[in-house]
Amino acid sequence: MTDEIVVPLLAWYDENKRILPWREDRNPYRIWVSEIMLQQTRVEAVKPYFDRFIRSLPDVKSLAEAQEETLLKLWEGLGYYNRVRNMQKAARMIMEEYDGKMPSEYELLLTLPGIGSYTAGAVASIAFEKPEVAVDGNVLRIITRLTADETDILSEKFKKQIREELLKIVPLGRTGDFNQALMELGATVCLPNGAPKCEKCPWHGMCQARMQGRLDEIPYKKKKKARSVEQKTVLLLRDGDRTLIRKRPEKGLLAGLFEFPTFDGWLTTEEIRRQAEHLGYGVLYVEELPQAVHVFSHKEWHMKGYLVKVEEIGFSKENEPDEKRPSDYHLISPTMIESSYPIPSAFRAFTPYVNVVLGNERFLR
Predict the structure, then answer these.
(1) Of 15, 35, 69, 165, which one is the catalytic site residue?
(2) Is the N or the C terminus of the chain less surrounded, counting Cβ atoms within 10 Å?
(3) pTM score above 0.70
(4) Catalytic (active site) residue 35
(5) Class of the 228-364 domain?
């Protein structure tokens, strides 16, 4: 890889770059938020999330001071909720140690919770024009195709090697544009899924994988360990218009979020009735719903859902406590769930049965 790739790449970027809300200026906070959101999420999906997040939490100070449930509700549907929790930890550290201003140096950015080499390189170069690079999956894909390199792109050693090679050719004065051009090329031309649009690529005449007819083989990824499968039973327990939800434990998968009562294994109808009665509800009827599957990075949930209609309790106030019900359970109207209680997208298949809409769908409704 030589610096001859730089000029055609930047010329292509100047002509083809997308207009994106986080590119409107070089505000380091906005760039940081966008880069965290864009990890494993498409640009078009991120745009409305970014807009809502910035309107609600426009700067480091507001992020540092936000209530956790507000924070998680803004993130609802993006997944990987520890990312936004780490953002808040980093924001508090910035307030305490850097007087509310994001540090510009790569090494200092790396000390902030949730910021790794990619995000540090992106913020340092795009916001502050530091001679750094940001190596993500897009960058690894286009570089390995350019050079016909068969190395496993999931190898941390290889990522460091590519970073070191790119640092040698990053153009001073346009470091931010260089990194964004690499990302843009991978996102819009040298695609991760489907055939790459080679005729639009500024490296068309240089790409070794294209010339060798090996675009289907490169990049190479070592196969990951198969995900484990867990069977779950999800209860949509309804008292009139209200639905029972509960807060998940503060540690572990989907920590601190709210769910419809979920149990390990596939329960029988009789077991479902006993669970509802254990919570103090008289069951009117149980209706089985279509099954759903949710895929996490390391496991899959195969879920059977049941709509459980129960006798109305008759509370006069929203979420009024009931001595028969554990304190982590809440009986809530759809409006309250949508406005204040973050529900993970793992349960998206079941929310229509309780008149609840999550994340982007709620704001596009």
Answers:
(1) 35
(2) C
(3) yes
(4) yes
(5) alpha beta
